Amino acid sequence: MIIQPKVRGFICTNAHPQGCAANVREQIDYIKAQSPIDGGPKNVLVVGASTGYGLASRIAAAFGSGANTLGVFFEKPPTEKRTASAGYYNAAAFEEEAHKAGLYAKSINGDAFSDEVKAQAIEMIKQDMGKVDLVVYSLASPRRKDPKTDELHSSVLKPIGKSYTARNLNTDKLEISDITLEPANEEEIAATVKVMGGEDWELWLDALSKAGVLTDDCKTVAYTYIGEQLTWPIYGHATIGKAKEDLDRAAKEITSSGQADAHVAVLKALVTQSSSAIPVMPLYISLVYKVMKEEGTHEGCIEQLYRLYTEGLYTDSPRLDSDNRYRMDDKELRPETQAKIEKLWPEVTEENLFDLTDYKGYQADFLKLFGFGVAGVDYDADISPIVEANFQ
Ligand code: NAD
Q: PANTHER family of this UniProt entry (predicted)?
């Protein structure tokens, strides 16, 4: 099969196995080129480990700290006729590289919200690692089936209180137009908190703690985005922001229960499969890329994660805010950086999109998420989409 990108709206429905593997190796090489993570984790569970920030968390733990890793994710396996999802290829490539390096790496491909997957993870930790000293919670999902009630909750990306009209870039048609988003009702807000809030993080820690598979000094971290003025109406002060606030509550609960030292980490805006689905974000991220690349402060997932480990999780002087969150969005939120973005924001048009913003970089990064546009990969080659993986 010749595998070329099939983009539909804000998703790409296929993925290139060799391109995905090359991306994983590139992130591993980045970590290997840094100093080892002093005092880093040894046995790690990463929930949401196959793409974006979770994959980078796993790579940084394994190759920066020699950690054994168990990864949990929900990805589509390949068939003779269809490629796998990118995360499937990423995880297979990660395991292969980890095994070559002599590191323990196993994965569960299943619904992390379910009791079954939690029980399976606990059994594997007991059998293979004994206990874990770091649990990374990096899920991004549009829906969640409550394991207690079987009810399916769907999240919404809507403002709260009043409607919001914003400039939006349609990445399919390259059109910039105003979109108006109607405010969420109470039910929608509650459902979004159910899906993206802290409840499932707490359920994981509770189950792991009751099973006795957390070390006494275990740490746990969940990821959030806060942003600034331009994104607040659709992110920080919107339904997703409300759900993310619930992570702060959960972190306090987990820490005070003595299960683990829990923190929320605030990461920067980046193109991932999840962020590309959020209105306003593609245009904002294209501007962030433009300004931060010019400033020399641009970072991808792996750079952010290396800093989270070395400047947050594994240092005696972490950069914490007043809500006890690790701040890795410091460079994005510098007032002078935000001022430049805010100045450019109203000036962007369809005509000057490629000059005023780094939409080119955004597009390239978006395709790269699915293994396309990666140097050294022959996209005209006829290859099999089948990659063997030993996921549970
Ligand atoms: P992503 O879409 O790249 O990764 C999501 C991961 O969750 C994948 O591994 C996927 O397989 C897994 N997943 C989804 N549903 C699952 C399920 N039911 N069971 C098991 N696994 C499941 O997303 P991302 O952008 O890396 O987001 C990860 C976290 O980082 C989220 O909490 C997100 O809010 C946060 N964050 C993202 C950004 C950004 O700009 N992308 C910025 C700051 C914080």
A: ENOYL-[ACYL-CARRIER-PROTEIN] REDUCTASE [NADH] (PTHR37480:SF1)
Q: Is residue 199 part of a domain?
A: yes
Whether 378 is in a domain gets the answer: no
> Atom 30, ligand 1: which residue's CA is nearest?
223
Pairing of strands 152-154, 105-109: unpaired
The string of pLDDT tens digits covering residues 132-174 is 999 999 999 999 999 999 999 999 999 999 999 988 898 888 8
Whether 27 has a pLDDT exceeding 90, the answer reads yes
C-alpha distances in Å from residue 36, one per residue of 66, 310, 322: 9, 9, 29
* 376 found inside a domain: no
**Cα–Cα distances in Å, from 302 out to 119, 209, 280?**
29, 29, 24
Tell me the residue ranges of DSSP E strands in the chain: 7-8, 11-12, 43-47, 68-73, 105-109, 132-137, 143-145, 152-154, 164-170, 175-181, 214-224, 261-266, 326-327
Q: Is residue 91 part of a domain?
A: yes
Q: How many domains does the chain have?
A: 1
Question: 230 Cβ partners below 8 Å, 6+ apart?
Answer: 280, 284, 338, 341, 342, 345
Kindly indicate the confidence band of residue 274, based on its pLDDT and cuts at 50, 70 and 90.
confident
CB of 53 within 6 A of ligand 1: the answer is: yes
Nearest CA to ligand 1 atom 38: 269
Full residue range of the structural domain in which residue 75 is found: 7-369
User: Rounded to an integer, what distance in angstroms lies between the CA atom of residue 282 and that of residue 363?
Assistant: 9
Q: Is 267 in the pocket of ligand 1 (CB under 6 A)?
A: yes
Specify the pTM: 0.97
Residues 6+ apart with CB under 8 A from 278: 157, 234, 235, 240
Which of 88, 235, 284, 362 is the catalytic position?
A: 235
Annotation marks residue 235 as catalytic: yes
Q: Is the distance from the beta carbon of residue 52 to the nearest atom of ligand 1 less than 6 Å?
A: yes
Phi, psi of 82 (to 5 degrees): -130, 140
CA–CA separation, 184 and 98 (whole Å)? 44
**CA–CA dist 222, 198 (Å, integer):** 9
> 105: domain CATH number?
3.40.50.720
Using alpha carbons, list the distances in angstroms from residue 83 to 14, 76, 243, 357: 6, 9, 33, 32
Q: How far is the CA of 369 from the centre of ligand 1 (A)?
A: 13
